[in-house]
Specification:
single chain, mainly beta, four-stranded mixed beta sheet, rod-shaped, 248 residues
Length: 248
């Protein structure tokens, strides 16, 4: 009798234990899984792209296609392509569930000069548009030393060519550097003294400042003199001699 009771209890406990997981499984089957995406924050350089996946069949939409576009690859995967610098949101939707992906687009790395020619001993400052690291492929030809987060000085060491690699995140850009020999200034020959025969000094004409002409006096025609009468002094009468007759 005791054995029958023990068997009955054991069977009952087994039935209860086996029934519990079945009810949990049925409940889980009724509950819809959450929508999940492989990445919720994406940062891309303009022109680059990235694939994103979801755990369900979804649709994809960009809030600003001028910043980033999204194109479906399959029911659960899409490709986000960065277009230009800026920010936008990609909305992922599955029936009544949605997820949002924040997208940040940064500009491509650029430098102020990609080809550089320097003489030995000379240097040049190069600027990048974003925080970068700088490295020379041959420091015996050209050295590079950072000035700030976006600037560096390239110094020519000896004749040859090398490459300066500028890196920002996953981006790189290269600068070709050509170093030429320094041109030595040619020594000018010392002037020689040549004795030339002395020349007589040429007569120089000194131009004196012209004097203003002195005023001239115009002589008016003189009037013809009136005839004058000259009165000559009368001669005294010569004494006359009277001869008287002689007396006899």
């Amino acid at each position: 009798m005791m054995i029958k009771k023990i068997l009955a209890c054991t069977i009952a406990a087994t039935l209860v234990a086996s029934a519990q997981p079945q009810s949990s499984t049925m409940y889980a089957a009724k509950q819809s899984p959450q929508l999940v995406v492989s990445q919720k924050n994406v940062t891309l350089v303009a022109g680059k792209s990235k694939n994103i996946t979801a755990n369900k069949n979804v649709t994809w939409k960009s809030s600003n296609t001028k910043v980033a576009k999204v194109s479906s690859i399959s029911k659960k995967e899409a490709k986000i392509t960065a277009v230009k610098e800026g920010k936008c949101t990609i909305t992922v939707k599955s029936k009544n569930k949605t997820k949002k992906i924040k997208v940040t687009v940064t500009p491509k790395i650029t430098v102020s000069q990609k080809n550089l020619t320097l003489e030995e001993g000379n240097s040049k400052t190069i600027t990048a548009n974003k925080t970068s690291t700088w490295k020379s492929s041959d420091t015996q030809i050209a050295e590079v030393s950072p000035i700030s987060k976006k600037k560096a000085k390239i110094t020519a060491k000896k004749e040859g060519t090398c490459t300066i690699t500028v890196k920002s995140g996953s981006e790189t850009i290269k600068i070709k550097v050509t170093v030429s020999k320094a041109v030595q200034p040619s020594e000018e020959p010392e002037p020689t003294m040549t004795a030339e025969p002395s020349k007589e000094p040429e007569a120089t004409m000194t131009t004196e400042p012209s004097k203003e002409p002195e005023p001239t006096m115009t002589a008016e025609p003189s009037e013809e003199p009136k005839p004058t009468m000259t009165v000559e002094p009368s001669e005294e009468p010569k004494p006359t001699m009277t001869v008287e007759p002689s007396k006899e």
